[in-house]
UniProtKB/TrEMBL annotation:
Residues 148-213 form the HTH luxR-type domain. One of its GO terms (biological process) is regulation of DNA-templated transcription. Gene3D superfamilies: 3.40.50.2300. The modification 4-aspartylphosphate is found at D54. This is Response regulator transcription factor. It comes from Dendronalium phyllosphericum CENA369.
Length: 215
């Protein structure tokens, strides 16, 4: 059973989501919250598996709440569910630790399946959002004057390992476990990679990693 916390400042949205998701035999709504601050309190009290998080809310918005939840309760996964497909919201939410960003007009069956995927560790993006993120990622061939392959060979073997795993969607904690290093060391490698590759955030790095690995 996947335990869910619904976070949205519109009570009708929460009620509708609860009624819809309750029909799924493997999903259980254990609580609701109407702002990010209350969501953090509910996560602490209820220990849900997945949080469905709205972006724009009073008191504390979803992006800040996502960041705090992912830092303090890493066992809980956050899936953003919003009406806004602004690429800044998407990038900021993913950077904050969200495992996905979906839109509220999606079919209920697809939402339920996305929740299952996120619970299993996969990242979920609404159709068209990857293209929005890609549009803001520098072309690997033009981001610097150096060819991509030369750029990669200048990375240490460990940095190349971290870059590859980021491209697969792994978190810092998961990378640390797989490479048998500390999470702090992973964070240091991520910082070095961002600087060396002239990328702005982890989302760009993941897209970059996939582009160079398949080129």
């Amino acid at each position: 059973m996947i335990r869910l916390l619904l976070v949205d400042d519109q009570s009708l949205i929460c009620q509708g989501l609860k009624a819809m998701l309750t029909l799924e035999p493997d999903l259980q709504v254990v609580g609701t919250a109407d702002n990010g601050e209350t969501a953090i309190e509910q996560v602490a009290a209820l220990q849900p598996d997945v949080v469905l998080m709205d972006v724009r809310m009073p008191v504390m918005d979803g992006r800040e709440a996502t960041r705090i939840i992912c830092q303090q309760y890493p066992q809980t996964k956050v899936l953003v569910l919003s009406t806004f497909d602004d690429d800044r919201y998407v990038a900021q939410s993913i950077r904050a630790g969200a495992k996905g960003y979906l839109l509220k007009d999606m079919p209920s069956q697809e939402l339920a399946q996305a929740i299952r995927f996120v619970h299993s560790g996969y990242t979920q993006l609404a159709p068209g959002l990857m293209e929005k993120l890609m549009a803001n990622v520098p072309d690997p061939e033009t981001v610097t004057s150096k060819p991509v392959q030369k750029e990669l060979t200048e990375l240490t073997p460990r940095e190349q390992d971290v870059l590859s795993l980021i491209g697969q969607g792994l978190t810092n904690r998961e990378i640390a476990k797989q490479l048998y290093i500390t999470e702090g060391t992973v964070k240091t490698h991520v910082t070095h990679l961002l600087n060396r590759l002239n990328l702005r955030n982890r989302s760009q790095m993941a897209i970059y990693a996939n582009s160079v690995c398949t080129s």
